[in-house]
Design brief:
The structure is a single chain. The chain has 115 residues and is α+β, with helices and mostly antiparallel strands. 37% of the residues lie in helices and 30% in strands. It is built from three helices and five strands; from the N terminus they run βααββββα. It has helices at residues 11-18, 22-36, 94-113, and strands at 6-9, 45-47, 54-60, 63-72, 78-87. It has a five-stranded mixed β-sheet.
Length: 115
């Protein structure tokens, strides 16, 4: 089975994942693999309203983990994971969405400059 997209995990997202317990990382990877295999569920991968940002969503032992990402479809289908948080409130913090948007803008700006 071919995955539906490639996943690029940026440094800040890697650092977030490294600080988590191994069983949490395993659950996040399992959920990402389900999405890559074509399972479409807002419980696993959801577009944030009025943005170009998506979040990989994992619930593990009552804690909500979020890995923010965006799509790059210019060459191959690629999802770029920007950073992650452990969610403490019902609503996704606006500063985290803004941070992911800024990383997205820098990413595409860098790509344009290096064409």
């Amino acid at each position: 089975m071919n995955p539906s997209f490639q996943l690029l995990v940026l440094e800040e997202a890697k650092e977030f994942l490294k600080q988590l317990a191994p069983e949490v990382r395993k659950k996040i990877a399992f959920n990402i693999d389900k999405v890559r295999a074509g399972i479409r569920s807002n419980d696993l991968f959801k577009k944030l309203e009025n943005t170009d940002i998506w979040e990989f969503r994992t619930l593990y032992q009552g804690k909500a983990y979020r890995l923010f990402a965006f799509w790059d479809k210019e060459q191959e289908t690629l999802v770029v994971a920007t950073h992650g948080i452990i969610k403490k409130t019902q609503k996704t913090p606006l500063k985290e969405i803004a941070k992911a948007e800024l990383i997205r803008q820098k990413y595409f700006g860098y790509k344009r400059l290096n064409k």
